[in-house]
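Margin note from the TA: students keep mixing up input and output lines. Inputs are the sequences; the output is the structure of the whole complex. Example:
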Amino acid sequence: MRKLEILFAKYYRSMANTIYVSEVPFREFMFRDFEGKVRRHISFKDLHDLRRYLVDNPPMHAYYSVSLYKKPTAPMDEKEPIRAELLFDIDSTDFKDEECEGESVWRCKNCGLTGKGIPPERCPKCGSERIEVNHWLNERCISLTKGEVRKLVNVLSEDLGASLDEIAVSYTGNRGFHVRVSEGRLTILSKEGRREVAFYAMGRGFDPTPLFIIDRGLLSLDLRSSVVRRALEHLLHTHRKLSPSMREKIHLLLKGKGIKLNPKERKHLLTLLRESAQRSGVRIDWMVTVDTGRLTRIPNSIHGKTGFRALRLSLDEYEPFNPFTDAVGLPAEPEIRVRVKMPIPSFRLKGEAFGPYSPGDEVQLPGFAAAFVILRGRAESLNH
Amino acid sequence: MREGEILLIAPFSREAAALLEEQGLTIEDLAFDPLLEDARRLARERLIRAIEGRILPPDLANPMNEVYAFVAAKLIASRVGRSMLSRLANYEAKRFVELSERLSTDELLNLARKTFDFDFKLDEGLWIDVVSYSNGCAGIGGPKWRLVNRVVRRGYVLLNERDLRRLISEYVKMRIMETPRVELPEPLEDIAKEISDLFAKRMRRKFKRPKRGDFPPCIRDLISKLRRGENLTHQARFALTSFLLNVGWSEEQVLDLFRSAPDFNERVASYQISHIARRRYKAPSCETMKNWGLCPGDCGRRYMLEGLD
């Protein structure tokens, strides 16, 4: 057995009892092993059965279905879904933030040009779009995504009516969070209904025209819509180039007052509000929300691209949560000697500082730190 | 409201279903019972009207007949095929929107609660639970119907009565589309044959099966939905038409494709298609398709026509 596998096996032996999935018999499970082999359409009779499987066959990645099925082991279109958790994926990879992507390394697959930071859409040298990226993760990525979690939890409870005890937040084990509603009426949303809800949270497709109120030639906005309020406030606070007269008008709108607009101003306001609704919306990957056939990481299992635990957190826990101390799950022993393939910035795990390392360096690291740099693809293990 | 009127207006209602169950009505009764001759006639008429797109005035004298006819028409349409069933679903939805004006607010809310499990709140306006709203509005096009453009608070969406009737009609459609396809006894099978011929005649012009080759998945989706006789939103129709005209289909070919739309009306459709052709509208951008909810996923194209001649 390779050293990485030993680390995973040790984790599951000591921590299997923290693995928790609700309504196990109705879920589909999927595992990917260290050779990349995938096993799908698996089911377990209970939690105990699942935990024993993880101890006996420690996987590199472990997933379960957001849907509950009558026949979880059947092929996809014969599973007979009962209902599905409403899942939102917040991933800092989608944010294109300078600081979060600062240590990411990209490479053009066409001409081999490499660079650091936010990956370009096209290679600046040859124009190819075939760019591969090795993302890094740091505190900034996590704090950005926490901000989105906060906004989303607010939309879910204030607007969509989910009660707080139905909402669960989990750290994905990599660069973001999952927020899910696992109980209640929202779990019977259809695929199309999920799209409506996702777009609502994102402010996508916002068109305030149906929310205009026109009274004696004066136009006001229906402030009962929280998307409208959010968009107006966001405009005032973040839009630096607003003309003084437009700023004044937005102030009035926020107070519920009617304003006069000529057609040109009206068009301009519409554009401003549309943009603002999206900017102030929650940044989620809506394709994940719509996909009820989705598989998602088993809470408290180990993420095979970091070695971190995919942790289930309460609404009080996610704010102070720091994955670099709280989610390190793999043991320190056995230590692993690694050779660095790509630049590794300095990082801290469990309070201990590591790096920076340059390509070609050979270092002996505690298991969890070695796993982190190997799984990120920046180093390779020397002693199998 | 007169007694029994709810059955006339909403033959799909839980009340109607409960009455049928109480009477223990079977398909054989529907097919052979001499007392149900009128209902069979009405069912046939209903299907013809659905093909023609004109609403049949309800049989005021005998509300229960309306329910029998509704059930028989569903079964026959389903037997004929998905396109016919979809046609009927559209007809029943339109019929409901028209006739339900006669219902009081209370009656309307009760119907939606009992039949479709809607939940309401009355608080300076009518509020419907966000799940019923979102699951239903997806089939209705236009920015007004998007959840993001509605007032939403604590799990409820503000709605006026007119929009509620429209929303219920979407559920009527969905419910009818769930009708199973079963073998029918002879008298009903005969009607099915007649309707099938009539329907085929109506869609007489053969599809020229144009090449679908490398169309993007969003367009392939829309085409197969149309072929199955499913209803497309206004925006979906626009996207499909502008795309096809842009890749060189003739107006005539596009019109032929739309023949299987459940509400197909040759005059209206050909006007719309030639309008799009005259104005030379471009196919919507991928961004717009996503906003309209018509993008089934990332296909790697940057715009719809990418890679097409």
